[in-house]
Design brief:
alpha+beta; 4 strands; single chain; Growth Hormone, Chain: A
């Protein structure tokens, strides 16, 4: 049994959903983590899938070598996936009014490129004659579903926990690029394959440098960024606040300042000191909302506090 079309179907699902997770993270961060960001990216992605599937269907009905078509589409998709976040970042940084439209077009395009491959994989992997039509078709769908399910798990729970968003875009882009190279392996001469492989490695190296530069581009312009912390749970940006204390933004939204000095009082910490006037020795304190922990740190210094 030829598993190559099944693996092609798996790759299309894995790469597509991985990119969707990354775009939800990037677009959501750029738009201050508003709930509408998820629905916007999802809508653009579904439109892209519909468009790409239509193109893939038309490609499957011709006399072209479908492995060459798949290879060219996936390599182009890899290059686009590497470049599109940067294009979005530049637009978000310099032309904020256009960032949503730009993001929608880029998301739709990256989804369309990968969606082209699925009808081709379906055409290559389905036995269109005999009594195995249903079984062969279901296997192509099963591999696509498996890739679509595994992509968000690997990208959302593993890659984003050990790499930055920028690096994750690079990893997924290079995976797509080399998936395309593999499709071309038996159809193109070795020198072309080698040239493509070297180009892919070079592109990955460029994206790997300055691993948090992409987040710098789309972050709120609130001063000089001192540090960016990225995990699978989200992105925290710390800005230099000078004597007022560093400002902390979670998900690109202001959380508070790292200040414990009531004289400076850049984060309204004097309100907390009223507690000591209202109750001389509080034993139990209820705190709703941790923010960055400045208030919590001060409460722990209150004499007599036993439980927070």
């Amino acid at each position: 049994m030829n598993r190559a079309p099944h693996l092609l179907s798996f790759a299309a699902g894995f790469l597509s959903l991985s990119q969707e997770i990354l775009w939800i993270r990037l677009f959501g961060f750029a738009n201050e983590s508003v709930p509408q960001a998820l629905s916007f990216v999802l809508a653009a992605y579904l439109l892209g899938i519909a468009l790409g599937a239509r193109i893939g269907k038309e490609a499957s009905t011709g006399t072209r070598n479908l492995w060459v078509v798949s290879g060219l589409v996936l390599t182009a998709s890899g290059v686009f996936d590497l470049a599109s976040p940067w294009l979005y970042g530049v637009v978000a940084h310099s032309a904020e009014n256009w960032q949503k439209a730009c993001g929608g077009l880029l998301v739709m395009s990256t989804a369309a490129l990968k969606a082209v491959v699925f009808p081709i994989a379906h055409h290559l992997g389905s036995d269109q004659t005999g009594d195995r039509v249903g079984r062969s078709m279901s296997r192509v769908y099963a591999f696509n579903i498996a890739g679509s399910a595994l992509g968000p798990v690997v990208t959302g729970f593993v890659l984003l926990d050990v790499l930055t968003t920028q690096q994750c875009f690079a990893v997924v882009a290079v995976l797509g690029f080399f998936a395309g190279v593999l499709c071309l392996f038996k159809c193109w001469p070795a020198w072309r394959i080698a040239a493509l492989g070297m180009a892919g490695i070079a592109l990955c190296g460029l994206a790997w440098a300055l691993p948090d530069r992409l987040i710098h581009l789309v972050a709120t312009d609130a001063g000089t960024i001192k540090r960016i912390v990225e995990t699978r749970h989200g992105i925290v940006t710390i800005y230099d606040g000078g004597q007022s204390g560093d400002a902390v933004y979670g998900g690109n939204v202001y959380d508070g300042r790292a200040n414990l000095d009531p004289v400076v009082n850049s984060n309204g910490i004097d309100r907390l000191l009223i507690l000591s006037a209202l109750q001389e020795r509080p034993r139990r304190v209820l705190m709703i909302g941790l923010s960055i922990g400045s208030w919590l740190k001060l409460v722990t210094a209150f004499p007599g506090v036993e439980q927070i």
